[in-house]
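Pipeline run #58 for the internal structure catalog. This entry was flagged by the ingest filter as a single-chain record with no existing model, so it goes straight to prediction. Upstream metadata was stripped on purpose; only the residue string is passed forward. Reviewer on rotation: M.T. Logging verbosity set to normal.
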Amino acid sequence: MNDPQTEYLSPLTRKHRSAFFYLLFLVFVLVVPVIVFYASGYRYTIGAEESRVQMTGGMYIGTLDDESVIEINGSPVQHTRFFRRATYVQGLSSGMYEVAVYGDGLQTWSKVLPVYPQMVTEFNTFTLPATPQVRVITPLRTSSGEMVFHGYDTSTSTPFAFASSTVPFVHSTSSVPLPYQANIEYQFLSELFLQERLIRPESPHKIEKEPAFRFLSQVVEEEDLAGTSMDIATSTVRQGNVRLEWQNEEVVAVFDGPFRTIPHYYCLPKASASTTAAHYGTHVADAVTIATTTTTTTLRQRGTWHSQVCRDEIRIDRMGQDVEYFNFVPGVTDLVLLHLEDGLYVTEIDDRSWQNHQVLYPHGDIFVMVHNGQILIQDGDYFAELFITRQD
Protein backbone atom coordinates (compact mmCIF):
# COMPACT_ATOMS: atom_id res chain seq x y z
CA MET A 1 0.00 0.00 0.00
CA ASN A 2 1.47 3.36 -1.03
CA ASP A 3 2.42 5.86 1.62
CA PRO A 4 0.28 8.96 0.99
CA GLN A 5 3.21 11.21 2.12
CA THR A 6 5.73 9.69 -0.36
CA GLU A 7 6.34 11.75 -3.50
CA TYR A 8 6.89 10.02 -6.86
CA LEU A 9 8.36 11.41 -10.05
CA SER A 10 5.92 11.20 -12.85
CA PRO A 11 7.28 10.35 -16.35
CA LEU A 12 7.66 13.07 -18.92
CA THR A 13 4.75 13.61 -21.14
CA ARG A 14 4.97 12.56 -24.75
CA LYS A 15 5.13 16.21 -25.75
CA HIS A 16 8.13 16.89 -23.51
CA ARG A 17 9.94 13.73 -24.64
CA SER A 18 9.47 14.73 -28.26
CA ALA A 19 10.78 18.22 -27.51
CA PHE A 20 13.93 16.86 -25.87
CA PHE A 21 14.51 14.44 -28.76
CA TYR A 22 14.29 17.15 -31.40
CA LEU A 23 16.47 19.48 -29.32
CA LEU A 24 19.24 16.87 -29.02
CA PHE A 25 18.88 16.00 -32.70
CA LEU A 26 19.29 19.67 -33.60
CA VAL A 27 22.43 19.92 -31.41
CA PHE A 28 23.84 16.81 -33.13
CA VAL A 29 23.13 18.19 -36.60
CA LEU A 30 24.78 21.52 -35.76
CA VAL A 31 27.81 20.30 -33.74
CA VAL A 32 28.97 17.23 -35.68
CA PRO A 33 29.67 19.10 -38.94
CA VAL A 34 31.68 21.66 -36.97
CA ILE A 35 33.74 18.89 -35.35
CA VAL A 36 34.34 17.19 -38.70
CA PHE A 37 35.13 20.57 -40.27
CA TYR A 38 37.70 21.30 -37.53
CA ALA A 39 39.20 17.79 -37.50
CA SER A 40 39.67 17.91 -41.28
CA GLY A 41 41.94 20.91 -40.90
CA TYR A 42 39.55 23.68 -41.88
CA ARG A 43 39.64 26.95 -39.95
CA TYR A 44 37.46 30.03 -40.12
CA THR A 45 39.70 33.07 -39.95
CA ILE A 46 38.32 36.45 -39.00
CA GLY A 47 40.43 39.23 -40.45
CA ALA A 48 40.33 43.02 -40.42
CA GLU A 49 39.41 43.22 -44.09
CA GLU A 50 37.83 39.85 -44.77
CA SER A 51 36.93 36.60 -43.11
CA ARG A 52 37.51 33.32 -44.86
CA VAL A 53 37.70 29.57 -44.50
CA GLN A 54 41.12 28.05 -45.01
CA MET A 55 42.57 24.54 -44.89
CA THR A 56 45.37 24.00 -42.40
CA GLY A 57 47.84 21.27 -41.48
CA GLY A 58 49.91 20.32 -38.50
CA MET A 59 53.25 19.10 -37.18
CA TYR A 60 54.05 16.12 -34.99
CA ILE A 61 57.43 16.68 -33.35
CA GLY A 62 59.26 13.97 -31.44
CA THR A 63 61.93 15.08 -28.96
CA LEU A 64 64.77 13.32 -27.16
CA ASP A 65 64.98 15.57 -24.10
CA ASP A 66 61.92 16.34 -21.95
CA GLU A 67 63.14 19.84 -21.12
CA SER A 68 63.93 20.95 -24.66
CA VAL A 69 62.27 24.05 -26.12
CA ILE A 70 60.53 23.95 -29.51
CA GLU A 71 60.33 27.02 -31.70
CA ILE A 72 58.42 27.41 -34.94
CA ASN A 73 59.42 30.45 -37.01
CA GLY A 74 61.12 31.91 -33.93
CA SER A 75 58.12 31.58 -31.60
CA PRO A 76 58.18 29.06 -28.73
CA VAL A 77 55.49 26.40 -28.91
CA GLN A 78 53.32 26.44 -25.80
CA HIS A 79 51.07 23.86 -24.15
CA THR A 80 50.97 21.32 -26.95
CA ARG A 81 53.04 18.47 -25.51
CA PHE A 82 50.35 15.81 -25.36
CA PHE A 83 52.83 13.01 -24.82
CA ARG A 84 56.00 12.80 -22.75
CA ARG A 85 58.34 13.17 -25.71
CA ALA A 86 56.10 14.32 -28.53
CA THR A 87 54.39 17.56 -29.48
CA TYR A 88 51.45 18.04 -31.83
CA VAL A 89 50.93 21.49 -33.31
CA GLN A 90 47.77 22.02 -35.32
CA GLY A 91 46.05 24.81 -37.21
CA LEU A 92 49.11 25.75 -39.28
CA SER A 93 48.46 27.34 -42.64
CA SER A 94 50.23 25.77 -45.61
CA GLY A 95 53.78 26.98 -46.17
CA MET A 96 57.39 26.55 -45.09
CA TYR A 97 58.24 26.56 -41.39
CA GLU A 98 61.58 26.79 -39.62
CA VAL A 99 61.62 24.50 -36.60
CA ALA A 100 64.33 24.67 -33.93
CA VAL A 101 64.71 22.53 -30.81
CA TYR A 102 67.19 23.54 -28.12
CA GLY A 103 67.69 23.79 -24.39
CA ASP A 104 70.15 24.73 -21.67
CA GLY A 105 73.22 22.56 -22.02
CA LEU A 106 71.95 21.01 -25.25
CA GLN A 107 72.98 21.23 -28.87
CA THR A 108 70.48 22.66 -31.34
CA TRP A 109 68.44 20.77 -33.94
CA SER A 110 66.80 22.67 -36.79
CA LYS A 111 65.04 22.12 -40.11
CA VAL A 112 62.91 24.00 -42.58
CA LEU A 113 59.95 21.84 -43.60
CA PRO A 114 56.63 22.37 -45.39
CA VAL A 115 53.13 22.02 -44.00
CA TYR A 116 50.43 20.92 -46.42
CA PRO A 117 46.65 21.37 -46.04
CA GLN A 118 44.95 18.49 -44.22
CA MET A 119 48.28 16.73 -43.63
CA VAL A 120 50.52 16.32 -40.58
CA THR A 121 54.25 16.74 -41.15
CA GLU A 122 56.00 14.29 -38.85
CA PHE A 123 59.62 14.37 -37.76
CA ASN A 124 61.83 13.32 -34.86
CA THR A 125 64.41 15.63 -33.34
CA PHE A 126 67.46 15.01 -31.18
CA THR A 127 69.48 17.33 -28.94
CA LEU A 128 72.69 15.87 -27.58
CA PRO A 129 74.35 17.36 -24.50
CA ALA A 130 76.65 20.25 -25.38
CA THR A 131 79.22 18.77 -23.00
CA PRO A 132 80.00 15.11 -23.77
CA GLN A 133 78.65 12.75 -21.14
CA VAL A 134 81.17 10.00 -20.45
CA ARG A 135 81.64 7.18 -17.98
CA VAL A 136 85.39 6.81 -17.81
CA ILE A 137 86.86 3.34 -17.21
CA THR A 138 90.46 3.28 -15.94
CA PRO A 139 92.83 0.39 -15.15
CA LEU A 140 92.67 1.12 -11.43
CA ARG A 141 89.90 2.01 -9.04
CA THR A 142 89.61 2.82 -5.37
CA SER A 143 87.91 0.55 -2.87
CA SER A 144 84.88 2.88 -3.01
CA GLY A 145 84.59 2.57 -6.81
CA GLU A 146 86.26 5.82 -7.91
CA MET A 147 88.24 5.71 -11.15
CA VAL A 148 91.94 6.45 -10.80
CA PHE A 149 93.94 8.52 -13.27
CA HIS A 150 97.44 7.40 -12.40
CA GLY A 151 100.58 9.22 -13.46
CA TYR A 152 98.91 12.41 -14.68
CA ASP A 153 100.36 15.80 -13.83
CA THR A 154 97.18 17.76 -13.32
CA SER A 155 99.08 21.06 -13.57
CA THR A 156 99.75 20.44 -17.27
CA SER A 157 96.88 18.25 -18.42
CA THR A 158 93.60 16.83 -17.22
CA PRO A 159 92.15 13.76 -18.92
CA PHE A 160 88.63 14.20 -20.31
CA ALA A 161 88.63 17.86 -19.27
CA PHE A 162 86.22 18.63 -22.16
CA ALA A 163 83.61 16.16 -20.88
CA SER A 164 81.36 15.60 -17.91
CA SER A 165 82.14 12.39 -16.05
CA THR A 166 79.23 10.38 -14.73
CA VAL A 167 81.47 8.62 -12.18
CA PRO A 168 83.79 10.10 -9.53
CA PHE A 169 87.53 9.86 -10.10
CA VAL A 170 90.79 10.76 -8.40
CA HIS A 171 94.24 11.76 -9.68
CA SER A 172 97.37 10.01 -8.54
CA THR A 173 100.81 11.37 -9.44
CA SER A 174 102.66 9.16 -7.02
CA SER A 175 105.32 6.87 -8.50
CA VAL A 176 104.86 4.56 -5.55
CA PRO A 177 102.06 2.02 -6.09
CA LEU A 178 99.15 2.82 -3.83
CA PRO A 179 96.60 0.31 -2.54
CA TYR A 180 94.30 0.67 -5.55
CA GLN A 181 92.33 -2.21 -7.00
CA ALA A 182 92.52 -3.57 -10.53
CA ASN A 183 89.41 -2.65 -12.50
CA ILE A 184 87.83 -5.87 -13.79
CA GLU A 185 85.69 -3.97 -16.32
CA TYR A 186 88.82 -2.39 -17.79
CA GLN A 187 90.40 -5.80 -18.22
CA PHE A 188 87.26 -7.10 -19.94
CA LEU A 189 87.15 -4.12 -22.32
CA SER A 190 90.86 -4.50 -23.12
CA GLU A 191 90.19 -8.02 -24.36
CA LEU A 192 86.98 -7.00 -26.14
CA PHE A 193 88.60 -4.11 -28.02
CA LEU A 194 91.63 -6.24 -28.90
CA GLN A 195 89.34 -8.86 -30.43
CA GLU A 196 87.41 -6.20 -32.34
CA ARG A 197 90.59 -4.66 -33.72
CA LEU A 198 91.74 -8.06 -34.97
CA ILE A 199 88.55 -8.89 -36.86
CA ARG A 200 87.63 -5.41 -38.08
CA PRO A 201 89.27 -4.52 -41.39
CA GLU A 202 90.42 -1.10 -42.41
CA SER A 203 88.09 1.86 -42.32
CA PRO A 204 85.31 1.63 -44.95
CA HIS A 205 86.74 4.43 -47.09
CA LYS A 206 90.02 2.48 -47.50
CA ILE A 207 88.35 -0.73 -48.68
CA GLU A 208 88.04 -1.26 -52.41
CA LYS A 209 87.41 -4.81 -53.59
CA GLU A 210 87.47 -6.85 -50.42
CA PRO A 211 84.93 -9.62 -49.73
CA ALA A 212 81.91 -8.84 -47.60
CA PHE A 213 82.56 -8.82 -43.88
CA ARG A 214 80.63 -8.17 -40.70
CA PHE A 215 81.70 -6.39 -37.58
CA LEU A 216 81.50 -8.38 -34.34
CA SER A 217 78.80 -6.05 -33.04
CA GLN A 218 77.16 -5.74 -36.46
CA VAL A 219 76.15 -9.29 -37.30
CA VAL A 220 73.51 -9.59 -40.01
CA GLU A 221 71.35 -12.57 -39.18
CA GLU A 222 71.23 -15.14 -41.98
CA GLU A 223 67.48 -15.53 -41.66
CA ASP A 224 67.06 -11.83 -42.43
CA LEU A 225 68.58 -12.46 -45.85
CA ALA A 226 66.99 -15.80 -46.62
CA GLY A 227 65.09 -15.99 -49.88
CA THR A 228 66.65 -12.84 -51.33
CA SER A 229 69.27 -12.22 -53.98
CA MET A 230 70.51 -9.10 -52.22
CA ASP A 231 74.25 -8.46 -52.30
CA ILE A 232 75.66 -7.47 -48.95
CA ALA A 233 77.88 -4.42 -49.18
CA THR A 234 81.45 -4.39 -47.94
CA SER A 235 80.28 -3.05 -44.60
CA THR A 236 76.73 -3.68 -43.42
CA VAL A 237 74.89 -3.27 -40.14
CA ARG A 238 71.19 -3.89 -39.58
CA GLN A 239 68.71 -2.68 -37.00
CA GLY A 240 65.06 -3.60 -37.43
CA ASN A 241 64.00 -3.11 -41.03
CA VAL A 242 66.78 -0.66 -41.84
CA ARG A 243 70.35 -1.49 -42.74
CA LEU A 244 73.38 0.75 -43.16
CA GLU A 245 75.82 -0.16 -45.88
CA TRP A 246 78.86 1.24 -47.64
CA GLN A 247 78.03 1.97 -51.28
CA ASN A 248 80.24 3.82 -53.74
CA GLU A 249 82.21 5.60 -51.03
CA GLU A 250 79.05 6.60 -49.15
CA VAL A 251 77.06 5.36 -46.15
CA VAL A 252 73.49 4.56 -47.23
CA ALA A 253 70.46 3.76 -45.07
CA VAL A 254 68.33 1.16 -46.87
CA PHE A 255 64.80 0.20 -45.83
CA ASP A 256 63.95 -3.38 -46.79
CA GLY A 257 61.05 -4.28 -44.50
CA PRO A 258 57.30 -4.49 -45.14
CA PHE A 259 56.20 -1.40 -47.04
CA ARG A 260 53.47 -0.61 -44.50
CA THR A 261 56.18 -0.01 -41.86
CA ILE A 262 58.39 2.31 -43.89
CA PRO A 263 59.52 5.34 -41.82
CA HIS A 264 57.81 8.60 -42.68
CA TYR A 265 61.01 10.38 -43.74
CA TYR A 266 61.49 8.01 -46.66
CA CYS A 267 58.22 9.34 -48.14
CA LEU A 268 57.32 12.69 -49.70
CA PRO A 269 54.18 14.23 -51.18
CA LYS A 270 54.04 13.57 -54.91
CA ALA A 271 55.17 16.73 -56.69
CA SER A 272 57.32 18.02 -59.51
CA ALA A 273 61.11 17.92 -59.18
CA SER A 274 61.26 21.71 -58.78
CA THR A 275 58.66 21.69 -55.99
CA THR A 276 60.39 18.82 -54.19
CA ALA A 277 63.71 20.67 -54.45
CA ALA A 278 62.18 23.87 -53.07
CA HIS A 279 60.51 22.10 -50.15
CA TYR A 280 63.05 19.42 -49.22
CA GLY A 281 66.31 20.28 -50.97
CA THR A 282 67.92 19.53 -54.31
CA HIS A 283 69.57 16.40 -52.92
CA VAL A 284 66.15 14.91 -52.12
CA ALA A 285 64.73 15.80 -55.53
CA ASP A 286 67.78 14.24 -57.19
CA ALA A 287 67.36 11.06 -55.13
CA VAL A 288 63.71 10.76 -56.18
CA THR A 289 64.68 11.32 -59.83
CA ILE A 290 67.39 8.68 -59.64
CA ALA A 291 64.96 6.23 -58.03
CA THR A 292 62.59 6.64 -60.98
CA THR A 293 65.28 5.96 -63.58
CA THR A 294 67.35 3.13 -62.06
CA THR A 295 66.68 -0.51 -61.31
CA THR A 296 68.86 -0.61 -58.19
CA THR A 297 66.42 1.41 -56.07
CA THR A 298 62.65 1.34 -55.73
CA LEU A 299 60.17 4.22 -55.76
CA ARG A 300 56.80 3.24 -54.32
CA GLN A 301 53.56 5.08 -53.75
CA ARG A 302 51.24 5.21 -50.76
CA GLY A 303 48.48 7.31 -49.25
CA THR A 304 45.06 8.29 -50.53
CA TRP A 305 45.10 8.26 -54.33
CA HIS A 306 48.83 7.47 -54.16
CA SER A 307 49.53 10.98 -52.89
CA GLN A 308 53.03 10.11 -51.63
CA VAL A 309 56.16 8.60 -53.17
CA CYS A 310 58.59 6.61 -51.03
CA ARG A 311 62.27 5.94 -51.60
CA ASP A 312 64.02 2.94 -50.07
CA GLU A 313 67.50 4.48 -49.79
CA ILE A 314 68.84 7.63 -48.11
CA ARG A 315 72.46 8.69 -48.28
CA ILE A 316 74.10 9.82 -45.05
CA ASP A 317 75.99 13.10 -45.33
CA ARG A 318 79.60 12.52 -44.21
CA MET A 319 80.44 16.24 -44.39
CA GLY A 320 83.25 15.68 -46.86
CA GLN A 321 85.27 13.58 -44.41
CA ASP A 322 86.49 10.00 -44.47
CA VAL A 323 84.33 7.54 -42.54
CA GLU A 324 86.18 5.44 -39.98
CA TYR A 325 83.17 3.60 -38.57
CA PHE A 326 79.39 3.69 -38.65
CA ASN A 327 76.59 2.03 -36.74
CA PHE A 328 73.11 2.74 -35.40
CA VAL A 329 72.65 4.57 -32.15
CA PRO A 330 71.57 1.70 -29.85
CA GLY A 331 67.82 1.21 -29.64
CA VAL A 332 66.75 3.39 -32.58
CA THR A 333 66.68 3.11 -36.36
CA ASP A 334 66.70 6.80 -37.30
CA LEU A 335 70.01 7.93 -35.75
CA VAL A 336 73.46 6.92 -36.96
CA LEU A 337 76.84 6.93 -35.23
CA LEU A 338 79.37 8.36 -37.65
CA HIS A 339 83.06 8.28 -36.74
CA LEU A 340 84.73 10.89 -38.94
CA GLU A 341 88.22 12.34 -39.04
CA ASP A 342 87.57 15.04 -36.43
CA GLY A 343 85.26 13.24 -34.04
CA LEU A 344 82.29 10.98 -33.37
CA TYR A 345 78.91 12.32 -34.50
CA VAL A 346 75.27 11.39 -34.23
CA THR A 347 73.49 11.98 -37.55
CA GLU A 348 69.83 11.60 -38.43
CA ILE A 349 68.78 9.53 -41.44
CA ASP A 350 65.97 11.97 -42.25
CA ASP A 351 67.44 14.06 -45.08
CA ARG A 352 64.46 16.31 -45.69
CA SER A 353 65.83 19.86 -45.84
CA TRP A 354 69.19 18.62 -44.49
CA GLN A 355 70.61 16.11 -42.03
CA ASN A 356 71.47 17.37 -38.57
CA HIS A 357 74.89 16.37 -37.20
CA GLN A 358 75.74 16.72 -33.52
CA VAL A 359 79.05 16.01 -31.79
CA LEU A 360 79.03 13.07 -29.41
CA TYR A 361 82.80 13.02 -28.82
CA PRO A 362 85.11 15.75 -30.17
CA HIS A 363 88.25 13.67 -30.83
CA GLY A 364 88.80 11.68 -34.01
CA ASP A 365 91.81 9.63 -32.91
CA ILE A 366 89.76 7.01 -31.07
CA PHE A 367 88.46 3.50 -31.61
CA VAL A 368 84.67 3.09 -31.49
CA MET A 369 82.40 0.12 -31.07
CA VAL A 370 78.84 -0.65 -30.03
CA HIS A 371 78.48 -3.56 -27.63
CA ASN A 372 75.36 -4.76 -25.78
CA GLY A 373 73.56 -1.47 -26.32
CA GLN A 374 76.53 0.62 -25.15
CA ILE A 375 78.56 3.15 -27.16
CA LEU A 376 82.16 2.47 -26.17
CA ILE A 377 85.40 4.17 -27.16
CA GLN A 378 89.09 3.76 -26.50
CA ASP A 379 90.93 7.06 -26.21
CA GLY A 380 94.60 6.50 -25.46
CA ASP A 381 95.01 4.34 -22.38
CA TYR A 382 91.42 4.70 -21.22
CA PHE A 383 88.02 3.42 -22.17
CA ALA A 384 84.73 5.29 -21.86
CA GLU A 385 81.03 4.76 -22.35
CA LEU A 386 79.26 7.62 -24.10
CA PHE A 387 75.68 8.77 -23.50
CA ILE A 388 73.36 10.66 -25.85
CA THR A 389 71.31 12.16 -23.01
CA ARG A 390 72.28 14.12 -19.93
CA GLN A 391 73.21 11.95 -16.95
CA ASP A 392 72.10 14.16 -14.06
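catalog note: Residues 188-256+312-387 form one domain.
catalog note: The two ends are 75 Å apart (CA to CA).
status: ready for reviewer M.T.
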